[in-house]
Amino acid sequence: MEHSGRMNCYKRIDNKKLRLGYTTGSCAAAAAKAAAYMLLAGEDIDYVSLTTPGGYSLYLEILDKKWGDGFVSCAVRKDAGDDPDVTDGVLIYAKVSAAKAEEAQDGPLVFISGGTGVGTVTKPGLEQPVGAAAINRVPRQMICQELEQLCALYHNLQGLEVVISVPGGEELARKTFNPRLGILGGISILGTTGIVEPMSESAMMSSIQLELKQQTALGRKNLLVTPGNYGQAFLQQHFPLQLSDSIKCSNFVGETIDFAADLGVENLLFVAHIGKFIKVAGGIFQTHSRNADARMEILTANAALAGAEQPLLKKLMQAVTTEEGIRMLEEAGWLEQTMVHVTERLESHLARRSFGRINLGVVLFSSELGRRRQGSGELGRTANAGEILQKILQEVT
Fold this sequence. Notes:
It is a single chain. With 397 residues, the protein is of the alpha/beta class. Helices cover 39% and strands 23% of the residues. The chain folds into 2 domains: 2-196, CbiD-like, CATH 3.30.2110; 201-396, no CATH class. It has helices at 24-41, 137-153, 169-173, 178-181, 201-217, 229-238, 253-262, 274-277, 295-306, 310-318, 322-332, 335-354, 367-373, 385-396, and strands at residues 2-3, 10-13, 16-19, 21-22, 47-51, 57-61, 63-68, 71-77, 91-98, 110-114, 117-118, 120-121, 160-165, 183-184, 186-187, 195-196, 222-226, 246-248, 267-273, 359-365, 378-381. Strands 7-8-9-13-10 form a 5-stranded mixed beta sheet, covered by helices on one side.
């Protein structure tokens, strides 16, 4: 059983030993359980036990206890382990009071709502309906299970009202995906296992899939994707679109295509830096360097197809970055022809990956080229990119 506010369980991820933590959902359930116990039993407690859906037993310290007229409020401190979670260390509060008379008639025993710092769902496509507090299904189940047991133990037939709050949650939410997903006013209370595992590929893919679902729930069939911050910066400067109109896919290009196709998306446009998408021109759809790094090989091969001569090809192979390679091609007069072949290869590999289920386009750019030319830095685009972009603009404007 894990004691106090820190887990001492570890998992090896990417050959590193990383400490696990527990979710905001576990914190909310533990705080609610403690507050309900103190209200019904009339006893003060300093720790509470909680078994997570993932099977871990936690023994968590109860902080900032307040007793009032018909209510008890207390908090549990979030521990994210070794995951870079913006909510690490924050206090998750639960205020428990007797349910109102109108709520307690032939209905559930536990009524859950969100208070200060807990977001409100404003767009469809998320787990909770529009207008509800962003407290996901499993945390709600955890809270209900613990409090229903206490109601049975203390013969409480009236039921309990629980308000979950996170002081400072609105400010924290600005550092998360919540504003883009239409969750406003605070963070989400999350967790399916009750345990935080340091950021894994599965967590990243779940986040991408959630964004895609949210966009398609709004009726969008034409979507814009950027792999990372470079793409989003380029988008802001050169496209008449908001960042909220795009989805970030990180290194998971192939999975993003698969998810989008499964959701019925018709057109997907990638706006991508050459350093990331030159790999896709070689059929590499997971672009993290630990999986494959053939950037210069692919760029050089396409320069050779364009007709570049051997001395230049040798220099390209020795270049450290794709930006350096782009500069070499520009200075030698081979950039435009090379990019024609690169975009053709992109079209071919993307079509092969999608099996024709979705129309895929790409706009490629170079940050350094844009600075040198004092322009957009666009290197090239697939033949269908302009058409897809127009469809995206029609949907979002």
